[in-house]
């Protein structure tokens, strides 16, 4: 059984970037800083497990500021709405202990990228993220299918999810 590779980039070899590479890399870092400044994910989370209970919250002690940031990211003045969207993400993504914060922060970054203007668009963005996540899951199941019936089932579900996602994107446009 092969070990799952990490999506976190790290240097495979120890050489320094060549001059042309360094120019491109510096430009990419500057572009990323500009993008991050314009559209940063709201309400970054950390997660830990205490006595078998998953706890999710801010990486700092300013809970009120964190709630305000989360509400802005969810395009709603309602703290109840923002917390419910977060809870639905956790339920929909079937949060395991490992990788919970990364998965939630990725979903929050996606929602920030959608830039919802109100609660309706936020709900749509949350659904889109869950559909995307499930589509990726179906793709991995296709690769591991043992029988033609499994392959057809997973492929059919993946196509339906992709169509739904496309329809939702059109609805946001």
Describe it for me?
It is a single chain. This protein is mostly helical and 173 residues long. The chain is 64% helix and 6% strand. It is built from 6 helices and 2 strands; from the N terminus they run αββααααα. It has helices at 19-38, 63-73, 79-92, 100-114, 119-144, 148-172; strands spanning 46-50, 53-57. A two-stranded antiparallel sheet has the order 1-2. α4 packs across α5 (119-144). Mean pLDDT is 84; it is low at 1-5.
Key features?
single chain, 173 residues, 6 helices, 2 strands, globular
Write the layout of secondary structure elements.
Layout: H1 19-38, E1 46-50, E2 53-57, H2 63-73, H3 79-92, H4 100-114, H5 119-144, H6 148-172
Antiparallel strand pairs: 1-2
Short structural summary:
By secondary structure, the protein is mainly alpha-helical.
């Amino acid at each position: 059984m092969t070990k799952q590779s990490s999506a976190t980039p790290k240097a495979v070899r120890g050489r320094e970037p060549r001059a042309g590479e360094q120019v491109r890399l510096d430009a990419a870092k500057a572009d990323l800083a500009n993008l991050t400044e314009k559209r940063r994910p709201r309400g970054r989370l950390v997660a830990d497990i205490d006595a078998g209970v998953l706890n999710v919250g801010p990486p700092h002690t300013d809970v009120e500021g964190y709630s305000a940031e989360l509400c802005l990211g969810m395009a709603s003045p309602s703290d109840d709405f923002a917390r419910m969207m977060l809870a639905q993400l956790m339920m929909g993504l079937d949060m395991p202990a490992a990788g919970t914060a990364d998965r939630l922060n990725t979903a929050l970054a996606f929602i920030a990228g959608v830039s919802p203007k109100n609660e309706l668009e936020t709900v749509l963005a949350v659904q889109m993220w869950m559909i995307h996540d499930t589509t990726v899951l179906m793709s991995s199941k296709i690769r591991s299918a043992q029988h033609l019936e499994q392959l057809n089932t997973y492929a059919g579900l993946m196509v339906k999810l992709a169509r739904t996602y496309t329809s939702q994107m059109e609805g946001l446009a």
